[in-house]
Structure formats: C-alpha cells, structure tokens
Amino acid sequence: MHFRKVRHYIQRLTDWSHWPHYLFYFPLLIPWLSYYVRSRSLWFFTPSNPTLAFGGFEGEGKRQMYNQLPTQYCPKSLFIKPSMPFEQVKEKVKEEGFQYPFIVKPDIGMKGILFRKIENKRHLEQYHTQMPVDYIIQEFLDLPLEVSVFYCRRPTEKKGEITALIQKNLLEVQGDGKSSLGELIKHHPIASRWINKSHKGLNDQMDLILGKGERYCLSHVANLFHGAHFIDLRHLIDEQLTALFDSISHQNQFYYGRYDIKCTSVEDMKQGRNFYILEFNGAGSVPNHIYAGKYSLLGAYKEVLVHWKWLFNISQYNHENGYPRWSLMKGRRFLQNSKRHFDVLKKLDKELVLN
User: Fold this and answer.
1) Which of 179, 259, 347, 351 could connect to 183 by a Cys-Cys bridge, CB 3.0–4.6 Å?
2) What is the mean pLDDT of the chain?
3) Rounded-to-integer distance, Cα 326 and Cα 332, Å
4) Per-residue DSSP letters for 229-259?
C-alpha cells in the first residue's frame, strides 16, 4: 500500500497533466497579471461574452446559457428548485416525458460536482431531498461520442476560429470474464488513482464479474478529475464545422469559450444533425486539448497563452465598444458568493451516495 502511494506521488510529480491547478498555472502568473495592468481592471475578461454573468469565467448558470442557445441543439431539461415538494417534482418529470435513467446536476456547477445518473424514483428522491440549490433534470443522451469544441471570434469579424477539437472518452474498465470489478480497477492505470477519491456508489459493485469484453463505465463525467481520456481531433476541423459554430455563436454574443457536446459523429455534427450542446464554458474555459497527449509542458503553456491573448483582445474590444467591465466590488461579491455556493456543493458531493 505504501509503495502504491509513493508511486502515485512520483507519477503526479513527473506528469504535469496531473499537477494541481495552482502549480500548473503558477509560471503563467506574470502574463496574466500583465493583462490586469494593461486593462487597469482585475476583471478585464468580463466583457468577453456580454450575455454571460462574469463573462462565463465561473458561477454562471446553465439555465442562462441554454436560454441563449438554439433549442434544437439543447438536451431536454427541467429546472428544479429545492423548495419544490417531491410529489410535484415527480409530476413534472412525468409531464415532460422523462424516462429513467436521466442525469441531474446543479444549475450552477463545476467539474462534475453533484453530477449523478438517476436510475429510479428512489435515487431522484434522495438527490432532491438533499440538494440545497437549484438543479437540472436532463435527458440521458446515449450517444457514442462526446467532444469539446473551442471557439474564438473577434467581434469585428463574422467568421471565427475553432482552435481545438477533442474527443472525450469516459473512464471505463473492460472485463476478462474472470476478474472482479475491484480487481479490474486496481490494475487499471487511471481507474486505480480515481477510485481513491471518487468511488461513490461503487462499493456494492466491487465483487461484480464482468464478462469478456464487457465494459463498465465508472464515471459519466467527461473531465480529467473523473478519469476521462482526451483524443486530439484537430485534423477534423474544417470550414463546414467552423460555419456551424459561427451560426450558433452569432445568434448570441459568444465570442470565446468551449462547447461540450454529445453527438453520433463529427461528420453528423458538421451537417447540423444528431448533436446536443451540454454546456458552453466562457472566459474561464480551460483549453483542455493540451491534455490530449500531444503537448510538452512548454507546448501546453504556449497554447494557454495563445488563448489568453484571444480572451484579452476580445474583452478589450467589447469594453471599448460599450460593454463595461465589472467593478472591483461587484466582481469580488460575485466570487465570494460563488465560493460559498461551491463549498456547500463540494461538501455534499463527498457525502451523497444514491442507493
């Protein structure tokens, strides 16, 4: 056990993709501070996406985002307040035609916190009775591909640029007909690390024997924290894909950010069919294609700086053309409220097990 912990820490130290957020970004502190100085504003990025709270840096609601996107590209969603009686929640679920399983997540969330797959009414009741904030019930999209599209556009131009396209593979283990789920996780290079910090709801499944070739999804959250694996699809970016996201982004004022999408295929998405936008992340979007395995640490830093330059230039232009930056106090209050909100959610995320 001690050897595994030592190996884990050595791996984290030598693999920058698993560094803590503060450690990875520390060398980039000076260029970020230079934008503060040039703009004379701590919140220089807030005009980047004028229709998103705080420019979409953090703390924006998903409902706010969905209301600005074409309805045909949004998954069917139901917004629930925690004060709503559970009987009324069940009635709304029935009226809207939701079928189990479906997913639930906070309206204002991050990093997959309190994202759950709901298998039955008991799960839903457990989730609802413990949730202290507004949340979303959303159809479970059983589509084969999840991708991220990073889109940037200068406000003076009609045509934007897709700077990255990646495929996001969920964390899974594959059975051999003999090993238990617990054994498969133990010998999986990523799952063995993930299980130590995010094993909610799996304890009663550890003795399960998977058939040969049978796959078991350990997490339905497609981010690095939950063990997802990214594949670079930049070679599939073309004029057709760019035109699609130009069209979507022109309907609102989305100039900078990352679209997270479920689809049948990239080709179908280019045709404008069989895809759904799960989220749009604005000014706070991480250019997560740097984790797709093709970048050195210096290469990753270069990509981050390229995207920060986009962010600054877009924000600066919008500010000069009528979109004010948030005041120091307004931004500070917003972040304080966001921190309190996320502290509550993080604590509950560690405790909430659906059974």
Assistant:
1) 179
2) 92
3) 9
4) EEEE-GGG--HHHHHHHHHHHHTTT--EEEE
